[in-house]
Amino acid sequence: MPNHRGNFIWYELITPDPSAAKRFYDAVVGWDIATESVAPGIEYRMIRRSDGGNAGGVLTLTDEMMSNGARPVWLGYLYTNDVDAAVEAIVAEGGSAMMPPWDQPGVGRLAMVTDADGAPFYLMDPLPPRAGRTRLATFSPSMSRSMSAGMNCRPTTRTGRLPSTPSISDGAKRAACRWAKWATTSSCSMTA
Question: What total of structural domains would you count in the chain?
Answer without folding.
Answer: 2
